[in-house]
Write a structure and sequence with these properties.
Layout: H1 42-45, E1 51-54, H2 56-64, H3 87-101, E2 112-116, E3 131-135, E4 147-153, H4 161-175, E5 182-187, E6 191-197, E7 202-205, E8 208-209, H5 215-227, E9 235-238, E10 244-250, E11 253-263, E12 272-276, E13 283-290, H6 297-304, E14 316-321, E15 323-324, E16 327-328, E17 330-333, E18 336-345, E19 350-351, H7 358-379, E20 381-382, E21 391-398, H8 412-415, E22 429-433, E23 440-441, H9 464-467, E24 474-478, H10 486-495, H11 497-502, E25 509-513, H12 527-544, H13 558-565, H14 571-576, H15 591-600, H16 619-634, H17 666-696
Parallel strand pairs: 1-7, 4-5
Antiparallel strand pairs: 2-3, 3-4, 5-6, 6-7, 6-8, 9-10, 10-11, 11-12, 12-13, 13-18, 14-18, 15-16, 17-18, 19-21, 20-23, 21-22, 24-25
Helix pairs in contact: 2-5, 7-12, 7-16, 12-15, 12-16
């Protein structure tokens, strides 16, 4: 997915590398997946293949969803207004229609109200629909989780209205995990359009004139749906100022007071992560999984932890398909079917992007390499989506009590303990590897839901071979395997004797890859691709890092940033062929030596190497781990290793060019919101000062 953003200031702010979408005051936050400056072009840039325009008859059928339709005396219903001059007119008519509708349908003690958002407590001017539908008891709350439906109205000269509404319904899905689908309405003085969004699709009617014969029945179907929403019956929302959710895990167990921690894109898997403040160690993960594209994450995790908890991998308490009245919750469009699944997980931590120092990030990434190579060797499992989002870090190292005892496995903390620290377990790590929903169980698929997609992952972190169809061409020289530093060699040989002996490659290799060379078919994901993803994670952290309260700004070079975020993959030209010495902030410049050493192993594709152990599946892991371990040992006492980075990332030098984000667009939106909010505050302050000046004069 590509998104175009025109920055109006001299420097641009790179996105925080997080998938977190805060819902604490959701009305003040732009919709996930849609940039507020380009919502009118959401179909083209954000969701190019998930929008469907349908006729009013089809929408009516979808709204009633096979339920018995109410018997309505249309002569008793209010007629549409002859003219609509503002949002309040639409609200008055729809409220009168809703009130009349209540006499024909069964409904609870509460009623629904159409409210202009200017009447809602704490509503901000940012990402605010023109009016919303809320229960009468919730009208004082400005939180998206209390909204029942979103509405937009036409405004002269505003070309973005319909795009905004589609975007708002997508965001509404994120705020209401208890709803399977949500609805919206776009109003114009002459017509209206209805929207229905679910994880498969955004459906939109063509324009329906207010006075058409089918207009009132269609609006009644829409209002009926508001009183009978499509819900997940195992989940309920607690109507408090800060909404929480209750989930029935089984017949004998429910979990209360769950708050939303993170959400993914609304259209697609619609991942929702929730936990309790009182017990953050228990995490709920919900997704709508498409049949026919991946192995199921729950069975993959069961296989990983069979025989004892696998060190460094998120632990699974339960995995279930979510049911309504004994039937799976599904959404469907044509040949695409998604069903809702729920995982109860046991571990929590912060994303690796929040790790403060070079020492911490290097030790964590060494451990990620250790986890992925041993998972492949012992469990025949490839993660296939190593990214900053999928690596969590605990505050302290942990070896769980029921830890599996695995031969030839050891984490960085065992080789490099903190001064004064007693000897730790070789299975003790701060890392928690998560999100195995695109993982592959090699040779013995674990409950596959269809054909495996081999080219998958998060684009910015994907190995080049996965992201591109052809390998880089040219003449390449691969370096020999790095020797373990003599100060570590004894311990390394004692703990990891087999790999120390097996990967004793002391000669470089030169080979050529001709232009237009193609990978052998069928293309399959390889373990070395996960190792390359670790390199990109380290590069992302290193490029964005700047020390706390830097004495001077050192912006990111625009070409380097564009290479990371552009939809056209130019990472090979700008980072692998040669790595510019000025890529990093001067405080963290010593990391250049490590990155430069690691990138040399990526210059030529190992699939075409012929000598030594370069064809071994674990070769690149071993090379990277030795590079990192040696660097940690050799720089152990250097001050830069413990210099904490600032929470704010480095800016990007001015280019005058459009910038494109990568991965989940929520990251960029949060940054764009802050910029625009600052701009609005500055403009307001200028107006206030001008007013005061005139008053004095």
């Amino acid at each position: 997915m590509a998104e175009h953003v025109q920055d109006s200031i001299t420097t641009t702010i790179p996105p925080h590398d997080t998938q977190n979408t805060s819902l604490q005051s959701a009305i003040e936050i732009p919709v996930a997946g849609i940039d507020r400056q380009d919502r009118d072009e959401w179909r083209k840039y954000i969701y190019p293949d998930v929008h469907t325009e349908i006729g009013w008859e089809k929408m009516e059928d979808m709204l009633y969803s096979n339920a018995k339709r109410p018997e309505v005396r249309y002569e008793d219903l209010p007629a549409p207004f002859e003219t609509y001059t503002d949002t309040k007119d639409y609200c008055r008519y729809l409220n009168s229609l809703g009130k009349a509708m209540c006499s024909f349908i069964d409904h609870s003690s509460w009623t629904l109200e159409f409210l202009p958002t200017e009447n809602i407590h704490s509503a901000s001017t940012l990402c605010r629909p023109r009016f919303v539908v809320m229960k009468d008891s919730n009208r004082n709350f400005g939180h998206w989780s209390f909204i029942e439906a979103i509405a937009e109205s036409y405004s002269k000269g505003d070309r973005h209205s319909e795009g905004r509404l589609a975007a708002y319904t997508a965001f509404h899905l994120q705020a209401r995990p208890d709803y399977v689908s949500v609805v919206g309405i776009f109003t114009h003085p002459s017509y209206f359009k209805l929207f229905l969004s679910n994880p498969c699709r955004v459906y939109q009617t063509k324009a329906v004139n207010w006075n058409d014969s089918h207009a009132t029945p269609l609006l009644l179907a829409w209002i009926w749906r508001l009183y009978h929403p499509e819900v997940d019956s195992s989940m309920s929302i607690n109507l408090t100022p800060k909404p929480t959710f209750k989930i029935r895990i089984s017949e004998s167990r429910s979990i209360n007071d769950l708050s939303i921690l993170q959400t993914g894109e609304s259209l697609g898997r619609r991942t929702t992560i929730m936990s309790r403040k009182s017990d953050p160690s228990t995490v709920i993960k919900e997704q709508y999984i498409e049949s026919g594209c991946r192995c199921a994450e729950g069975p993959i995790l069961r296989r990983i932890h069979e025989g004892g908890s696998f060190p460094g991998v998120i632990r699974l308490e339960s995995y279930t398909e979510v049911l309504n009245d004994g039937k799976p919750i599904t959404v469907q469009h044509e040949n695409i079917t998604r069903h809702k699944v729920r995982l109860v997980l046991k571990d929590t931590g912060e994303e690796i992007t929040k790790v403060k120092t070079p020492r911490e990030v290097l030790m964590a990434l060494y451990d990620v390499l250790e986890i992925t190579r041993v998972l492949h060797r012992e469990k025949n499992i490839l993660h296939r989506d190593i990214s900053s989002h999928n690596i969590l870090v605990r505050p302290e190292p942990l070896a769980v009590e029921d830890c599996a005892q695995i031969k030839d496995m050891c984490f960085s903390g065992y080789f490099l303990p903190d001064p004064g620290q007693s000897a730790c377990s070789p299975f003790s790590t701060r890392v928690i590897l998560i999100d195995f929903d695109v993982a592959e169980a090699i040779k013995d698929p674990t409950e596959p839901t269809g054909e495996i997609k081999h080219r998958t992952g998060t684009p910015a972190y994907m190995a080049r071979a996965v992201r591109n169809l052809n390998p880089p061409s040219g003449l390449f020289e691969l370096p020999p395997m790095a020797a373990v530093n003599p100060g570590l060699e004894g311990t390394y040989h004692r703990i990891l004797r087999d790999r120390h002996v097996d990967f004793d490659e002391s000669k470089p290799e030169i080979f050529r890859i001709a232009e237009e060379t193609e990978y052998k078919e069928p293309f399959c994901h390889q373990l070395r691709f996960d190792a390359e993803s670790v390199f990109w994670v380290l590069l992302w952290w290193s490029i964005q890092a700047q020390p706390k309260k830097p004495s001077a700004l050192e912006p990111i070079e625009p070409t380097a940033w564009a290479s990371l975020v552009d939809t056209n993959d130019t990472r090979n030209e700008n980072f692998i062929r040669e790595l510019d010495t000025n890529t990093l902030h001067s405080t963290y410049q010593p990391l250049y030596k490590l990155l430069n050493g690691m990138r040399k192993y990526l210059e030529g594709d190992l699939a075409f190497a012929k000598t030594g152990k370069r064809g071994h599946s674990e070769y690149l892991h071993e090379a990277f781990q030795r590079c990192i371990l040696n660097f940690l040992f050799e720089n152990d006492t250097k001050p830069f290793m413990d210099v904490e980075k600032d929470e704010e990332s480095r800016t990007v030098a001015a280019t005058g060019m459009q910038r494109k984000p990568t991965g989940t667009t929520t990251k960029l939106i949060m940054q764009a919101t802050r910029k625009m909010k600052r701009k609005e505050e500055e403009e307001k302050e200028e107006k206030d000062q001008s007013h005061k000046k005139r008053h004095i004069e």
